[in-house]
Every structure is written in structure tokens, then in C-alpha cells.
Amino acid sequence: MAHNPFPFELSTYLQAASERLHTTDEKPIIGITANYREGQVCLCEHYYLQVVEAGGIPVMIPPVADDRIIEETLETIDALLLSGGGDINPLWLGEQPSPQLHSINHRRDLPELMITRLAFQRQIPILAICRGIQTLAAALGGKIIQDLGEEWSHRRALSDTVPSLLKHSQECEQATPTHTVTIVPDTILDSVYGQTGTICVNSLHHQAVADGGKHLRISATAPDGVIEAIESCEDKAILGVQWHPEWLGEEGRKLFAWLVDEGNCFRRAKRFHQKHITLDSHCDTPMFFHQGIDFTKRDNRILVDIPKMTDGRLDAVTMVAYLPQPKTDRPFRESISLDIDRPFDYANFIFDRIEALVATDKERVAIARTPQDIEQNKRLRRKSILLGIENGLALEGQTGHVAHFASRGITYITLCHNGDNDLCDSARGQNTHGGVSRLGVEVIEEMNRQGIIVDLSHGAEKSFYDAIDISRQPIVCSHSCCKALCDHPRNLDDAQMRTLAKNDGVMQITLYAGFLRQTGETDIRDAVAHLQHAIDIMGIEHVGLGTDFDGDGGIRGLADASEMIQFTRRLLLEHYTEQDISMIWGGNWLRLMDRIQAARQTQTS
Known about the structure:
Layout: H1 10-19, E1 29-33, E2 35-37, E3 40-42, H2 45-54, E4 57-61, H3 67-76, E5 79-82, H4 106-121, E6 126-129, H5 131-139, E7 143-145, H6 148-158, E8 179-183, H7 188-192, E9 198-201, E10 208-211, E11 216-221, E12 227-232, E13 238-241, H8 249-275, E14 279-283, H9 306-312, E15 316-322, H10 333-336, H11 343-359, E16 365-367, H12 371-379, E17 383-390, H13 400-407, E18 410-414, H14 438-450, E19 453-455, H15 461-470, E20 476-480, H16 494-502, E21 506-509, H17 513-516, H18 524-538, E22 543-545, H19 564-573, H20 578-604
Parallel strand pairs: 1-4, 1-5, 5-6, 6-13, 14-15, 15-17, 16-17, 17-18, 18-19, 20-21, 21-22
Antiparallel strand pairs: 2-3, 7-10, 8-9, 8-11, 11-12, 12-13
């Protein structure tokens, strides 16, 4: 065959592609918002070329304000890049236009505000550039300066300590840096640039961020005080810069490499959630259902609902009937503010409400009684709701009620809450029984027979050890933390944790701030620190997560069910293996649940 002197032989190019068909070296997909100009959807080539050089696959996202299209797009991509462009219409921020406002791009505003908010809710990594940083702030509750010159004139009129404004809209080549920015230490941006402190940037804007809002913090400023970068203050992969790194070659590529790395981590987290069951062993959400709340719909009054579980890719949650311990000699009715006198009736009322709500949305959610139910629901793409009781007060001193609740599908009973009851002493109680009472012994034995897990979260130390001695099956602590890291009566000390593990029990780290840290703001890293300590003491086979959402659980970075994939992301960044994460995220709990329920079947067969 004659040699073809021209480089236009398609098979030459396709050969390399065919050789890669069976490789597993997949790259993260980076969605880039496109510009719109005079009927044309376009994108500066520097954006997608930087993504390619950083190791990602660029995909252009046109400005379409259709929530279904946006949601499907977000399911496809692993990270989002908000590109630069014209001004945002100030009406989106509740402001009238300044005389210095430039041309707005109304075709982009709504689609990009929508995709930013929805990406944020789904925990998708975001890099925002120039107009993008302003979109980021606007979508997440921040404020924008419509024109820096106008704003600085106003500020300098009020105070002579305000520095002079730099020129932020350069007229030279776009790849030319024209001023410096100072990076805030210990930020994402600081880690991206190797803790250099100060970098040189190009500058092509007359607007800027005035306030990032509650979700974002400042990570760089210009010498005149203009905000040049903002990022997540909740340990999320969100970063916005006012300059244009796509023009800055290798130096600018550092930001794109960060986005691609985070996109790869997010892709791994998504794959994990597709393959493995993720279970939260404790939330108190049902206590709010009588207020007209429907957990099948998104509701900002609660931390766990089906849309949030979907965003966080959480498969299953145990919703408990929480019964507050009434004050001595006071009627139970006073502690719940409802027209229900008996604890037994109140627990049944809660379960009735859960079942009724689930029945309204059978395609997306179902009650699960067994691990097999959860597995089946996951195959059918349904969320699983498990049932539990927090406070054995619900039994009203009658062991026969254990069988009743077992028939309703209850998976565990927390023996007490914040106060001694007729079953045992509480960690916050008065040592009424010196541990587990005689009635408590009978109840634990009946729970073993009925296949219900014995939960000693909230139990006093003596109650804990008594329960382990009494129970023929392992016990759990469905939402507790480590006393070695936070000295609180509700937490377990190392000796308790070793004993729990020796008896094949499970301890679920909770997200109640006061159990994680005694001073300062609590965040996701504190939760992981408690988890790691529990693993060090007990082994990976005996730990899990019980958030206590809607029971005052929720911390920065894990504030509600929509953020639960962030827990997976953090574990991946800490180099936990997929097998380890699977055990933590539900494998250990389901193993124990299966064992205890099998023992019941053996006794009844």
C-alpha cells in the first residue's frame, strides 16, 4: 500500500481509541457552563484545553433553564466549572441596577443560578471563574458589588482609611498578570498554590463579590481589599476566583488540576454509593411530623427527607419514635405537647404517621424490616425507612409490648433517654437502680427472643455493662462518640468500647456537636477523628454512623442528609479502602441486625 503523505487517515486515529476501550482508567467529566452571545452558544477554548491538560473530560453545558435537563446533566458530570462572561442582572439579588452596570446576560442568569444551587445541594465539586464567582455567591446567598469604582468611591467617602482602588479591568493581553493577591492561610486555595502566600493574577472585571454568604469564606484578597477568591467553609470542594486562570498556563492549571482531582474523588464516591448500602442508624425526624411535615418532600424544617436523602445518596435511615423522659411525677402528655396520655400510644402514633407517609410515595420509599428488605429496595431505587424506639418508656413496664413492637417491624429499642426510667439508669440520671432494673432484665431477654437489637446509647456506664452481661446477643450504641476525645457522660470510654467489640457489638458515631468537641465549632473532621479513634480501639468491624439528625445532630460539613456523600468523600480523601467504607456505612450494622433477627427465627421455628 502506498504511503499516505497527508495526516488525514481516520483509521490511524481510531486505532489508539480502540486499544483503550477495555481499560479502567476513566477520567472525570467536567461540565463547563457556556457563554451566550447573539444567538450563539460558545466557549473560550482555554477553559476546555486546561481541563484536558489537567486530566479531565470537558463537556459544554448550554444555558437551558429546565430543571429536568439540569438534573440529568448533574447526574452525568463529576464536577462543574462556572465560566466567565457578562454581568448578572442585579434583580436576582433583590437590587436595582447601578448606573455603572455593564451589559447583563439574561440568557445565562437563571440557568446558571439553578445549576449552581442544584450542584451545591448534590455536593458536586465547583470551580467558579470571574462571572462564575459572582454566580456562586448569588446562588448561595451572598452579595455582589455591581461596580467597583462606584462602591470604592462610596467607601472612601465614609472612611479615609479605605485604600485606593487598583485597576481591576486590564487592557493588555489576557495572559498578563497585573496585580497580586494575598491568599488566606489554611484554605483550599492555599493548598492549591503550595502555601506561597502571594500570587500574581490577571484582572478582567469591574464587579466583585461583596459577601459570600454563610456557606462561603474569603480565601484571597487584592491589596486594595477587593475579594479575589472565596471557597466553602463547610469542607466542600467549592472554590471561586475573580481572575481568569484559564489564560495563565501552567500556573493557572493548578486550579483546573484541583477541580479534576475533586471530580475524580466525587466520581469514586458516586460509584461507591451505587454499589454499597449506606445506612444512618438514628434520626429523630418523626417528632416533627405532627407539624404538617411530609418527609417525602423537601422541607427546610427537617434535616432528613427523601429529596435530601437522594441528594446525599443515602439508602436507609432508622427513624425513631423518640419519647422524652417526663419529669418525676409529671404526666407524659406534658413532655410531648400532644393530646396523647400514654407513651405506648404515642410510639404507635409515630409509627402510624411514618407508615402513612411512606404509603403516599411507594415508588421512592418503603419500610424495611430486614437487611434483605434494604437490599431489595436499593435494587428498586427506593429509600428504606427502618423503625426504632428511643426510650423504653414506650413499653410502659409490660414485656408483652416488646412483641407488639416487634410485629410492627421495630429494629431496635434504646433502653432509656436523658433520665432514669423503669428499665435502667441513664447517663444523665440519678442512679435509681444501680444499672439495669429487674424489669430491664426481663425486657432485654424478651428483646433477644423477638429479634430486637438492644441499644445502650444514653445508658449509664453500669447499665451498659449490665446489658452486655444480660443479653445473649450483641448490643449496640446507635448514636454515641468517644469519651477520650470529648469527655461527656453520653460518650463511651475506651474500656466500654473494647468490651462492646469483644461481644461483637457496634458503636455508631453521632453528629451531635457536644459529643464531638467541648469547645469551638464542630465539623466533619471531628466526626472522622472520633470514627478513627473508635476503629483504633475496636477495629473496623464495630463502627458506623448514627447522625441524630433532627435530634440536635448535624455539624458543619454534615449538616443534613443531603451532605452524606461528603462523609464518603472525606473517608476516600483519608485513604480508607472501599471495603472499610462499606463496613462503616452499614455493613457492620446490617451484619449484626441479620444475626439478631436470625436468632429470633431459630427460637420461633
